[in-house]
Amino acid sequence: MKTILILLLPLLLFYPSLQAAPEKWETDYSRLLKTYATPQGVRYAKWKASSADLQALSGVTEAIAGAAPDKLSRDEQLAFYLNAYNAWTIKNVLDAYPIKSIEDVYPLFGFFTRKTIIVAGKKMSLNELEKGIIIARFKEPRIHTAINCASTSCPELISEVFTAAKLESQLTATFRKFVNENPLGVSLPADGKTVNISSIFKWFAADFKPAGGAVAYINQFRKTPIPASAKVKFQDYDWSLNEAK
After folding, report:
1. Average pLDDT, the chain
2. 145, 155 in Cβ contact below 8 A?
3. DSSP letter string over 120-134?
4. 83-121 residue pLDDT tens
5. What whole-number distance in Å separates Cα of residue 53 and Cα of residue 219?
6. Residues 156-186: pLDDT tens digits?
7. Which of 42, 60, 70, 144, by CA, is between 20 and 30 Å from 238?
8. Per-domain residue ranges of the chain
């Protein structure tokens, strides 16, 4: 047995895919995202109309509920928790659909604060998952454009699963797109005197402070940097459902 392992080791190192084949729920979730997540929003009505794909999503969240991510690598864990947040958010929206806003599900943002999800055997709220695990453990500011709150002002829900192998490029791509291409992320008038940025950068200001603040962090990813002299204004947040029409 020892001889076989020694012979296989170079192959495992040369072919990383042999070490971490996607689990069934990841494959299923990937297909669902490719089918229903678009740059214009999520096709909730079409998804709700498919009993097979509703069942497939239930299978995804059940797998997330029973997972044991503690022994995974740092990037595998972060990818898992990002997928968990987004999958449970979609599941909770579809369970209540048709709705016009996540505020229709529970008042006073109960959508985020009620313990309605199970992740790795623990019942919790979306807020607990976001703040108590994703933010607290990983200290990665780019996650704020990777998780999706099912609302118009949220960064786009990407149409692929997060994976450890692609995590760095995925986090950079989602953040770059939000601050360069989405006016609800950053809107910089031609005169450069005022910049309108998402309230995400106000609510989670502490996460951007080590980089010198939100504007300094944003400028690491902007094609056209925000002038240091620009007055920062935070946009009103649109909580209407991020539904593709």
Report:
1. 93
2. yes
3. TTEEE-HHIIIIIII
4. 999 999 999 999 999 999 999 999 989 999 999 999 999
5. 40
6. 999 999 999 999 999 999 999 999 999 999 9
7. 60
8. 23-234
Residue 6's contacts (CB-CB under 8 Å, 6 or more residues apart) are: none
Instruction: Give the model's confidence band at 9: pLDDT under 50 very low, under 70 low, under 90 confident, else very high.
Output: very low
- Would you place residue 2 in the very low, low, confident or very high pLDDT band (cuts 50, 70, 90)? very low
What gap in Å lies between CA 34 and CA 116, rounded to an integer? 25
Both tokens of 68, joined, read 């044991």
Six token digits for residue 7: 């012979």
Q: Give the chain's radius of gyration (CA, Å).
A: 19
Write down the residue that tokens 């990937």 correspond to: 30
**Nearest to 28, CA basis, from 82, 66, 83, 78:** 83
Model pTM score: 0.91
- Asked if 226 and 187 touch (Cβ cutoff 8 Å), the reply is no
Q: How far is CA 207 from CA 131, 141, 210, in A?
A: 11, 6, 7
